């Protein structure tokens, strides 16, 4: 059985570490945003960029990070075989070469992928970066003491399922070959047309074996990017990066590396971060955040100030908030009941509960509204903006519930505007109009996650969310709807317990495609097919609104992360 490769989409929002993370027709900042403030809008080298965050950049080891596209702060230090395209909007959802000369060369059935490193690549100490270093960097990510990164390689590489890393098994993984210092070859258990996306994860960062200090490596990882670590206090709470003198822009088309210094300060309250960015006093004028959004109240205040509003970056990430059903629990074993809920839903009230249309966009598809995911517009149970209670009552009557129905909705008590009481109450109010009485079961966040991700305890009706490991339909649909990813004795994400051979077979068929546009179209069609089963009801895609300092220039927000890319920012 394949283990769901997901523990950290959870945040996308984190963004991406990922998380963000930051779906719908995504857009980059307006022209005024990109130019920044002040007389000279041209970005220049120099100065210090301050990053104000709530969550520390902990576990700063490429093996332990779960970061799609290389992450935001990590991508300044860790280069990978491929990376995300650093462009605004949809163009930023593309995968492009980084250390490699291209995005990978597959064999006929996409079970073997070959990469060639660029010439002239060097670490911060001037020594050359080799293919053996990338192989070693990947292998050390299998060590139990360095766990936490994306688990795909354990599932995809031949013979990797039980590998324990180079500290215990010095022979390494035979499925990763390095015939010479610039060539690396990966042998996979099955076709994976999206391997170039996986090669953006930080586990593909080169690590020189002679400089590996195990669990202490995070305090001073050897840089392959434009910046090196000169200070790491309290496990990433205060991180200072300075220029890597041996990084060459000639080998790196993606990172601009304008500031001389990056000063990352974390552990701050979100309201304090937004207050400091708003005031833009002293060093805060050249400050950004990579993990703190504007809330509804803060956004209302900022929107009333033209100067502040011009310093708000808007982005979208592949992320969907939805209602999930467990069809083994009555009355949700009846598709008509699930359809009735879908028709009764008032998405406008849900959007308002999530902070309003500036922070959430209504969703009728599980896939986010972005081309790279293969988004295909559809609404199998059209309810309009405010629901169709008449149609819902009709379906309930057909299901034998002509006198109404009482059900329980499980949600988190965490104030996240996603699975929280505000959203649950909006669903409760909408369904009441269709004769459905909803009792709310609020749980503390840890209890909520434990309950909904266990096959043994999963409730019949609950709020959920999902974010993409990379901008494609594969990591969005497979963990939630592939029957082979149902985990009975662990963390399960296939909430509808769907095990449909035609769905499983189509997932396998799409995974064989190396033409990502063709794959996207197939993911979109599969989304529609699954959506008609009413195992989930999409609610909304979040919109990310983040302030930045008045001296910040060259703001780039891609559809890959949905948040400001600090590799592009200038402060002079």
TrEMBL record:
The answer on whether this UniProt entry bears the keyword Signal reads yes
Provide the residue span(s) of the region labelled Disordered: 27-59, 205-226
For this UniProt record, the keywords arranged alphabetically read as follows: Signal
Q: Where is the signal peptide?
A: 1-26
Every Solute-binding protein family domain range: 94-484
Give start-end positions of Basic and acidic residues composition bias.
209-219
What highest taxon heads this organism's lineage? Bacteria
- Keyword set includes Signal: yes
Q: Which Gene3D superfamilies match?
A: Dipeptide-binding Protein, Domain 3 (3.10.105.10), Periplasmic binding protein-like II (3.40.190.10)
Return any one Pfam family short name.
SBP_bac_5
Name of the protein in question: ABC transporter substrate-binding protein
Task: State the taxonomy lineage.
Answer: Bacteria, Bacillati, Actinomycetota, Actinomycetes, Kitasatosporales
């Amino acid at each position: 059985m394949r283990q769901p490769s997901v523990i950290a989409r959870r945040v996308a929002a984190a963004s991406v570490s990922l998380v963000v993370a930051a779906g719908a027709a995504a857009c980059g900042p307006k022209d005024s945003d990109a130019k920044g403030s002040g007389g000279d809008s041209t970005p220049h080298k120099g100065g210090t960029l301050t990053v104000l965050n709530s969550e520390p950049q902990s576990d700063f080891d490429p093996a332990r990070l779960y970061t799609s596209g290389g992450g935001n702060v990590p991508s300044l230090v860790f280069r990978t075989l491929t990376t995300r395209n650093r462009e605004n909007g949809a163009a930023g959802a593309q995968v492009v070469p980084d250390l490699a000369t291209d995005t990978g060369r597959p064999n006929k059935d996409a079970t073997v992928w070959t990469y060639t490193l660029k010439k002239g690549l060097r670490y911060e100490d001037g020594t050359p970066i080799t293919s053996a270093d990338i192989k070693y960097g990947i292998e050390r990510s299998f060590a139990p003491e360095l766990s936490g990164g994306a688990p795909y390689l354990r599932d995809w590489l031949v013979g990797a399922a039980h590998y324990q890393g180079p500290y215990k098994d010095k022979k390494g993984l035979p499925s990763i070959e390095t015939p010479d210092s610039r060539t690396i070859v990966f042998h996979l258990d099955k076709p994976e047309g999206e391997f170039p996306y996986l090669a953006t994860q930080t586990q593909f960062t080169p690590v020189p074996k002679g400089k590996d200090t195990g669990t202490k490596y995070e305090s001073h990882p050897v840089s392959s990017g434009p910046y090196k670590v000169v200070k790491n206090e309290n496990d990433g709470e205060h991180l200072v990066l300075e220029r890597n003198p041996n990084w060459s822009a000639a080998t790196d088309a993606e990172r601009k590396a304008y500031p001389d210094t990056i000063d990352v300060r974390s552990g701050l309250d979100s309201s304090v971060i937004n207050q400091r960015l708003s005031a833009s006093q002293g060093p805060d004028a050249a400050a950004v955040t990579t993990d703190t959004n504007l809330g509804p109240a803060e956004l209302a205040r900022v929107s009333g100030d033209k100067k502040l509003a011009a310093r708000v970056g808007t982005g979208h990430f592949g992320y969907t908030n939805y209602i999930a059903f467990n069809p083994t629990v009555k009355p949700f074993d009846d598709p008509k009941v699930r359809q009735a809920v879908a028709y009764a839903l008032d998405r406008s009230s849900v959007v308002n509960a999530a902070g309003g249309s500036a922070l959430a966009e209504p969703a009728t598809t599980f896939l986010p509204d972005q081309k790279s995911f293969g988004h295909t517009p559809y609404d199998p149970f059209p309810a309009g903006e405010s629901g169709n209670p008449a149609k819902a009552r009709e379906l309930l009557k057909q299901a034998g519930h002509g006198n109404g129905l009482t059900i329980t909705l499980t949600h988190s008590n965490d104030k996240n505007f996603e699975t929280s009481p505000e959203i649950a109450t909006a669903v409760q109010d909408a369904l009441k109009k269709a004769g459905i009485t909803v009792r709310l079961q609020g749980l503390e966040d840890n209890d909520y996650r434990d309950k909904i991700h266990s096959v043994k305890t999963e409730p019949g009706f609950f709020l959920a969310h999902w974010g993409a490991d990379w901008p494609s339909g594969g990591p969005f649909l497979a963990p939630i709807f592939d029957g082979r990813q149902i985990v009975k004795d662990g963390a399960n994400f296939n909430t509808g317990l769907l095990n449909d051979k035609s769905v499983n077979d189509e997932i396998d068929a799409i995974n064989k495609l190396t033409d990502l546009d063709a794959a996207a179209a197939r993911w979109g069609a599969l989304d529609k097919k699954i959506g008609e089963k009413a195992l989930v009801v999409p609610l909304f895609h979040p919109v990310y609104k983040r302030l930045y300092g008045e001296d910040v220039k060259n703001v780039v927000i891609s559809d890959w992360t949905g948040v400001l890319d600090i590799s592009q920012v200038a402060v002079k």
